[in-house]
């Protein structure tokens, strides 16, 4: 059974930082492309960042220079370091694993507010 379990969300003030983690099980993690997506209330789910099995990285323009995606294949975990957070980063953040099949976690809430 494939499981993607996100953690690390919470409430943070503007300008603050959070580190999200996604622990994967049930897949050969190292061969999967991993990604973080987010969905704000009333909006469509959007790509935040992806990292391929080979380590190629892509970010949505709105988070470039502030967010960093990384992966630890030994721990079957992908991370999203989020710095200089803004209120518009408020959303549920979802972990994604993609190869021939695609899998999603249940999400973790990130709220940026003073």
Which descriptors apply to this entry?
single chain, mainly beta, seven-stranded mixed sheet, 53% strand, globular
Topology:
Layout: E1 3-7, E2 10-12, E3 18-25, E4 33-39, E5 46-51, E6 57-59, E7 67-72, E8 77-82, E9 91-98, E10 102-104, E11 108-112
Parallel strand pairs: 2-11
Antiparallel strand pairs: 1-3, 3-8, 4-5, 4-9, 5-6, 7-8, 9-10, 9-11
Label the overall shape. Answer: globular
Distance N to C terminus? 40 Å
Strand content: over 45%
Briefly note the structural class of the backbone: mainly beta
Query: What is the string of SSEs from the N terminus onward?
Result: EEEEEEEEEEE
Provide a count of the helices. Answer: 0
Q: Could you report the average pLDDT, rounded to the nearest whole number?
A: 97
Structural write-up:
The chain is mostly beta strands. Helices cover 0% and strands 53% of the residues. The chain is built from no helices and 11 strands. It has strands spanning 3-7, 10-12, 18-25, 33-39, 46-51, 57-59, 67-72, 77-82, 91-98, 102-104, 108-112. The strands form 2 sheets. Strands 2, 4, 5, 6, 9, 10 and 11 form a 7-stranded mixed beta sheet that branches. The chain has a 4-stranded antiparallel beta sheet with strand order 1-3-8-7, with no helix packed on it.
Please provide a brief summary of the model.
The chain is mainly beta and 114 residues long. It has no helices and 11 strands.
């Amino acid at each position: 059974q494939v499981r993607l379990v996100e953690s690390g969300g919470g409430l943070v003030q503007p300008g603050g930082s959070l580190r999200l983690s996604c622990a994967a099980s049930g897949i050969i993690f190292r061969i999967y492309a991993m990604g973080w997506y987010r969905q704000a209330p009333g909006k469509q789910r959007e790509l935040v960042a992806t990292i391929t099995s080979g380590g190629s990285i892509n970010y949505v323009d709105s988070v470039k220079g502030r967010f960093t995606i990384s992966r630890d294949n030994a721990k079957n975990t992908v991370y999203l370091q989020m710095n200089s957070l803004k209120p518009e980063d408020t959303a549920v953040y979802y972990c994604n694993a993609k190869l021939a099949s695609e899998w999603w976690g249940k999400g973790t809430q990130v709220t940026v507010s003073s």
